[in-house]
Amino acid sequence: MTSSPVVHLRRGGTSLILRTVADELPTVLHWGTAVDDDDVSALLPALARPVGDSVVYAQPNVGVVPLHSTGWLGHPGLLGHRDGAAWSFGPSRVDHVVQEAGESGWAHGPAGAVRLLSTALDEATELELTTELELHPSGVVRVRASLRNLGPDGYEVTGLEPGLPVPLSASELLDMTGRHTRERTPQRHRLETGRWAREAWGGRPGHDNATVLIAGEPGFGWRRGAVWGVHLAWSGNGVMAAERTTNAWQLLRGGELLLPREAVLAHGESYSSPWLVASWGEGLDAFAGRVHDFLRARPQHPATRRPIILNTWEAVYFDHDLPRLLELAERAAAVGVERFVLDDGWFLGRRADDAGLGDWVVDPDVWPDGLGPLADRVHALGMEFGLWFEPEMVSLDSELARTHPEWVLGTERGPGVPSRQQHVLDLGNPEAFAYVLERMSALVAEYRIDYIKWDHNRPLVDAGHQPSFAPGVRAQTLATYRLLAELRAAHPDLEIESCCGGGGRVDLGIMEHADRVWVSDCIDAHERQRMQRWISLLLPPELLGTHVGADQDHSTGRTLDLDYRAGTAVWGHFGIEWDLTSTPDADLDTLRAWIALHKELRPLLHGGRVVHADPIIPAVEVEGVVSQDGSDALFRMAVVDHALDAPFGRILLPGLDPARRYRVRVQEPSARSIHRGALPGWVENGVELSGEVLGRIGLAAPLLGADRLVLIRATAVCMPRKSS
User: Fold this and answer.
1) Looking at residue 724, what is its pLDDT?
2) Is 455 one of the catalytic residues?
3) Residue 83: C-alpha distances to residues 154, 155, 157, 272 (Å)
4) In the predicted model, what is the mean pLDDT of residues 126-149?
5) Active site residue: 359, 363, 462, 521, which one?
6) Catalytic residue chosen out of the listed positions 363, 450, 455, 707
7) Whole-model pTM?
C-alpha cells in the first residue's frame, strides 16, 4: 500500500504521475514526457489548483473515473442504481497499491509492466470500485475500472467510463469516419467546451468507427506536435469521447454502451469496463510506435512469417468449380503464394448471399467429394489451406434457422430488419454456441485447415435473446470472444483473420484472438493508400491484410497499374484477390517479382518502425519502415492525386539514424513502369548521405503521375566522419 500522496510510474520514456489519497480515486497529475524522480515530490504542490469558495466550480481533482459525488458536472464516469437508489458513488476509503508484473498479487501481469491498483469502498451504497492503471514497457497506458456489488440486492450498471486528462494545449481532435469500402477517413476539428462522443450501437465498432481519438497541439502531424490519444479495446457497443469543461479539465474517455439490464450484478458479482488503451508522443509516428511496440510484445502476437495469401473471393465469388479452383491453386503456387483461402460459397445451399449461413456442412451438390480434393492439392503444393466462415450469422433460408428459430436474435416483433439478407445467431445461447464450435472444429480437423477468414457482415439491430427478448449485444460480444478462444485452444496452430465486411471490427479486443484484420472490402489501391496509412495509427503492418486486386477494381471500377497495386499491398500482410487463371503471363511475372520482394523484406516490414513524412505537397505521401537497429529502411513515395505542383521539389526520409550514412537507391521492381525522364539524377547510381541530411534536407522527388509510386531503399553503410 502506498504511503506517499504521489505515485510515479515510469516505463518506455513515459511518466505517469498520480495523486493518491485515502478517500479519493487516483488523479493523473502528468501523463507523457519522462520526469526525473527528483521533481516528482514537488509536483503535488506545484500543480495544486486554487479552490476559491467551491470545489464544485473549481474541481481541483478529477479521478480516473469522474464521479458526480465529487462535484464533477460533466458526463459521470459511473452510472447505475439499485432499484432507483444507490445511484451516487462516493468513496469512504480508497486503498492504493503499486505492483510490478510477476509479483505476488499480479503474477500474470504483462511482462515488464507496472500498475497502480486502487480499490474504493462506498459503505453507504455497498459498492466497491476498483481502478487499474497499467504502464507498459512500450510507454502505453491501459486503464480499466471494475464495480462490485457488496449489497444483498441486485445493482444495475448503466455506464462505467474511465478516462485520462490531457493538457489544454491539446486543443485539436483527430479521429476517423467512413463507410463500407471507404473506411479510415480522418477528420479533424477544434475541441471546444462540451463533449465530443463517437458512439457505436451496432454490436461492433462499425465502418464509421473513430478507431482512435487523439488530442494534440494545433497543427500536429506525423513528426511534429505533442499528441495524446485513446482506443477502446472492445468489439461491441462502445463510446470514445473527448470532454472539455470550463474549469480547465480536458479528458479522453471510453467505455461500453450498455442496453437495459445487460449488467445487473447480484451480490458479489462484478462488472469491468473494456480496456482503454492510451498512447502519446511528439507527432503521430511516436504515438503509433508505442502502440505497435505494445502489440508486438504480446505473447500471442504472430511470431512466424506472414504467408503470402491468395483469397478466392474476387476470383470466383460463389462460382465454386473444382477444376477451376485447382488451376487457380496451381497458378498461385507458381507465383509464390503460401496460403490458399477458399472464401464464401462452399457450404450447404450457399449459391448466393441470401441462404445457407449457419449450415456449416460442405455442400455435396457443389463438392460431391467434399473439400478434400482441393485442400489436399493445396497442401501438396506446399501451401496452407484456409476457409471462410461467418460464425455469428444465420440466414433465415437455412436448415439451422428452420430447425432452431429460437436461436435467432430478435424482439417480440421477430428477428428484426435483415441486412445483407441475413440475421444474427444468438451465441449467448449455450446450445447455439456449442453447435457452431463443434461444426467449425470438426471441419478444421477434417481438412487440416490452417487459417480461418472470420467474417461479420452486418450490424446488430433489435438483438434480443429469446424467449425473454432481453438485450443481447454484450452477451454476444463476450460469446464471440469465448468462441474464438475455445477454437484456438482446440487447434493451437490455427490462424484467424478478423473480417467485418472489411474494416468494420478493427479493435484491440478482437485482436486478442485474431492474427490480422481485413482492412477493407475495397482493394482499390487508390483508396487503400489512405486506409492503410491511417489504420497504422493502431496496427502495425503485419496485422493488416493488404491484397492485390484485378486491373479494374470490383468496388470502385477504377483501373490502376499493377506496380501501383502491388506496391500498395506490399506494405502489410501481402495477398492476392484476383483470378490468376485469366491473368496474362507478363502480369504473372510482375506479380512474381513483387512477391519475391515482399518475402525478402518481410523481416523489415513486419518488425520495423513505421514512419511518415509530413506532406509538403498534399498529393505526395511518403512513408517508411525503419529497422529497429536503424541499419535498413524502405520508403514509399506515392502520388495519391493529380498534383498542382510539378515537379514536386524534395521529399524527406524520416526516422533514420542521424549519426549514420546511408546508401539510397530506388528499389525494383517499383520503377520499371516509370518514364526515365521522370527520375531525378540520384536514381541512376544511387546516393550516399547521412540520416540527418535525408531527414531534414531530403532528395529530389521523382516526377510521377497520379496513382503511381516508387520504393526507395536506404541501407546504412558506416558512421559519418566527425566534423573537425
Assistant:
1) 42
2) yes
3) 8, 7, 11, 20
4) 99
5) 521
6) 455
7) 0.97
